[in-house]
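Fold it.
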Amino acid sequence: MPYRVVHGRLGPASRHLFLADPAGNLIELHQLGTCRCTARAREGIGQARVSGTVLFADMRGFTAVAERLAPSDVVPLLNEYFAMLSAVTHEHGGTVFHMAGDGLMAGFGLPLSADDASGRAIAAARSMISGFGRLATDWKSRLGIETGIGIGINAGDVIVGDVGAPERPSYTLIGDTVNVAARLVQRARAGEALFSLSVKRALDPVPTGIVELPPLILRGRTRPVEIYCMASPNRIDLRPAAV
């Protein structure tokens, strides 16, 4: 069974063991007396630096869907959407860290190590685009709505740990690697997965049909980010037009 030991989350001497069961669920084991569910443990909550690949998925056209449909009609669509994304993530050995609004953040090789974390993320992105294509076709037929999915992927060091108020911590990923992945998903059109040079370097072999795009200039960074695109044949641009 795949596993990873993370040191130092709750103090210099603490250790956590993460296991993935056959269904893809992440199981976290604590040393006796250091469980982060106890009041004493919360005072020492820490983080650990690990290396892996971060994937963001974001629905295109969701704002128009939420405006047009009643909330009671939107919720089942979101449930279908997130169920598909979660299933694909687990199928490719990833971990879902966050779901909010119409976006998902997943990690590959995080916190469970994986030799082919970037390859798994790219394969998951391809499956997510394909899976959402089937959902979007059904929704357009039944409800007359136009939607798509964009994906951003980056690889590198991240901090994994609990962030938030002491009474309500969130186990998540933070760092520059995460920030770049989040910016890539913002740039992606419906049906596109954008990924960085760090991801491309880890791919062996590099999938066919990959297109190099102009470097992405991010505010606050000294150097632009080299990016690449993996697109589905029926990609569309549902982003609002610039004014």
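Residues 51-236 form a domain with the Alpha-Beta Plaits fold (CATH 3.30.70.1230).
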